Amino acid sequence: MAWLETLITDTPEAGFELAIKLARMGVKYTQPDAEVRDTLRKEYAASADSLTMASHVVAVHYQTVAAANNYWK
Amino acid sequence: MAWLETLITDTPEAGFELAIKLARMGVKYTQPDAEVRDTLRKEYAASADSLTMASHVVAVHYQTVAAANNYWK
Amino acid sequence: MAWLETLITDTPEAGFELAIKLARMGVKYTQPDAEVRDTLRKEYAASADSLTMASHVVAVHYQTVAAANNYWK
Amino acid sequence: MAWLETLITDTPEAGFELAIKLARMGVKYTQPDAEVRDTLRKEYAASADSLTMASHVVAVHYQTVAAANNYWK
Amino acid sequence: MAWLETLITDTPEAGFELAIKLARMGVKYTQPDAEVRDTLRKEYAASADSLTMASHVVAVHYQTVAAANNYWK
Amino acid sequence: MAWLETLITDTPEAGFELAIKLARMGVKYTQPDAEVRDTLRKEYAASADSLTMASHVVAVHYQTVAAANNYWK
């Protein structure tokens, strides 16, 4: 089943959530084991720098999604 | 309640504050627990590199918001 | 044999997989030894920050692939 | 008082200095306490990597400011 | 002798190799001593994060080269 | 005396050298003390990751300079 059909979203907020999904899929493709990913969650969810790094990946994907949607103008 | 209706802002300064909000929402989506985020604030707010990393995420989002607003020209 | 003929893909999902490939090729060109890369996999596949860093490289390449495909519009 | 009225500057050099200001404002919004920021200055101003990280944030903002000014062409 | 005459390449793959060269030249300009660079190769070629960081620089340059070549369309 | 009059350069190579200069100026504005910067040079010039980080900043500035010069086409 395709997990990514389009970059087009109805709203900027839905676009942000797509960017979150893209960032997480980048991790999932690299570490397919869900159990390992869950274990690691404790690691990054309690580290300020890890959370900033995650937010940074979302920001890069949000640039892509926002441009794809012509900034929902 | 939608937290992000539009990327359009009246001024470059309002756009910068939207970029700050987007950077923080990227953390919030990853770590929804406000208490944990507050605890972590002590960690990053007293580290030069952590603050630079946070400023970097704001810079990426500001690129997106500025382009969305055609640089407020 | 050429490993990269085009940046054009049929779908956003295929584009994401191309971005993954580009990120990995960036590592392969820098460390051609497959054995070393496999050994290192244990290192990054069990570190939250390493996985986020890998996802970040995918995000940058996805920007390029998405723009190349005019966001599959 | 508004600290950011426009992204338009007369020269590439003035644009670079605006990028520096934007990078610093990203820190200031995150850590409003000037005393803390001054204390941290000793930390990053004597670390090669910290200075490179700071220069990186300036580079991202400079992309934005340069595009806003159509590269002062 | 000029090392960089043009950003235009015949293929996406040749463009990727140019991006690799640009990333390496960024290191070479900063550390001109080939012996030091060779010594350091042992350091980064055996570190997952170092290899990811190197791949990240290639990704940024590939954005530039791909845009220069209008994505080889 | 102005240190940055224009982003326009005759060649891609001259553009790369301007990107190097911009990356270094980002450090210089943050740490104006030349003696400190020279001392720090020993630190980053002997670290693979520090050199990669420096090359990354050059890559971001090179994107800006290349776009300013319409990729010297």
Automatic annotation (TrEMBL), chains A, B, C, D, E, F:
It comes from Pseudovibrio axinellae. Gene3D superfamilies: Hexameric tyrosine-coordinated heme protein (HTHP). It holds the Pfam family HTHP. This is Hexameric tyrosine-coordinated heme protein (HTHP). It comes from the Bacteria. InterPro entries: Hexamer_Tyr-coord_heme_pr_HTHP, HTHP_sf.
